[in-house]
Amino acid sequence: MRELSLHILDIAENGITAGADCIHILVEEARTTDRLIIKITDNGQGMPTEKIKKLTAPFVSSLTTRRVGLGLALLAAAAERCDGRLTVKTGTGTGTEVGATFRYNHIDRAPMGDMASTITTLIIGNPQIDFVYTHIIDGEEFTLDTRELKAEMGNLSLTKPVVIYHLTASIRNSLGKLIAKNGQ
Amino acid sequence: MAKLSLEDLKKIKEQTAKNTYLRDGDANVKITVHMGTCGIAAGAREVMNALMEEMAAADRQDIRVVASGCRGMCNSEPNVTVEILDGETTVYQHMDADKMRQVFKRHALLGEVQTDFALAKR
Description:
The complex is a heterodimer of chains A (184) and B (122). Chain A is of the alpha+beta class. Helices cover 37% and strands 24% of the residues of chain A. Chain A has 6 helices and 6 strands. Chain A is globular. Chain B is an alpha+beta fold. In chain B, 37% of the residues lie in helices and 22% in strands. In chain B, a hairpin with a 4-residue loop joins strand 4 (80-84) and strand 5 (89-92). The model of chain B has no long low-confidence stretch (mean pLDDT 85).
């Protein structure tokens, strides 16, 4: 994947397939300590623990509709080539937490990419699911909680294209401010 | 802690209030963007972004957009499926933002199947 934000979109879609109704996405960029952490937590059905060992082997999938899966293997490879690692905490019925760490300044680290598009793409495609997105850059935090947004918008659906359009611009703007605040 | 500010939300609400319908009509057209690992890696997110921009511009209440997973034809991703109510279902292959705009304008809005990009129909 060309961007880390695409990995995030992919892993979040896994959670949705696993029957989650709320997905937490955390991105923490700690430039001073040279770490980048990504964590995606879902409350779906989880996976049986004996599967974990095989999870990052390419072509393993917990789905029964097809027999191969690449998503976690790709993320694991992306993390490991940047002196980081992939962690998966899961169990049947307990949801799944996927964490990936990276050395922030590693030459092989893919750019974060367009997080705003990732979040709004998730919202458009999955209106019935809630997303909590937290992005921390050097201690400064931005959060977006679709449960709050839905309450605030009343009968105006979040998935209306015009709303999505403005939402994307708004997230981009907020993240831009976070980056600018800490001077890149 | 920064949040998506209430001001932003109010702005969005005002800007969209003028073209809001209280009740969504039934969907006559359903557009599915396939977003498995394969689709995402091949550019499905950009396809979805383009589709959203076109949707915002067209302001048609009877077109529904959904995301789905991999459909097992990874080599032809990004795939987009256009279903017309009581009509044909067309699967498009190797989509990008521009092709998506064309399919939306010609097929979803005008009903002309874009056979150049089509993979299959049923």
